[in-house]
Design brief:
By secondary structure, this protein is of the alpha+beta class. Helices cover 29% and strands 40% of the residues. The strands form 2 sheets. It has a 4-stranded antiparallel sheet, with no helix packed on it. The protein is globular, with a radius of gyration of 21 Å.
């Protein structure tokens, strides 16, 4: 009887672990999609970030660019200045009471 209880416990733990591991990639995938809620425009190290409507930039959040300095952030856009168009911006956006961030957005030269 003890063997069957132990085996049942092992199976239950295995099922629980499988459920946890299978949900983790979908959560990461949802987070990855947040990047597409932002537009990044960069020319010669001058960066402008805007949110895709109905989202807007969160001007109360700690925006940061790992390759340059923040010039300003308001609810319409965020601006940064650096040496060139590379690195990653840590961005924050809101829509009504719902806010997201940090969203890690790559900076690339605009075409």
């Amino acid at each position: 009887m003890r063997v069957s209880k132990a085996l049942g416990s092992v199976v239950a733990v295995g099922i629980a672990m499988a459920a946890i591991l299978s949900s983790a990639p979908s959560q990461a995938h949802d987070h990855d999609r947040d990047e597409f809620l932002l537009n990044v425009d960069c020319h010669h190290g001058d960066v402008r970030v805007t949110a895709v409507r109905p989202w807007h930039t969160n001007d109360r959040a700690p925006w940061r660019w790992d390759r340059g300095e923040r010039i300003f952030v308001d609810e319409h856009e965020a601006r940064f200045r650096g040496d060139r168009c590379d690195g990653t911006i840590k961005a924050y956006i809101c829509r009504g009471e719902q806010c997201r961030g940090p969203i890690f957005v790559p900076v690339r030269p605009s075409r």
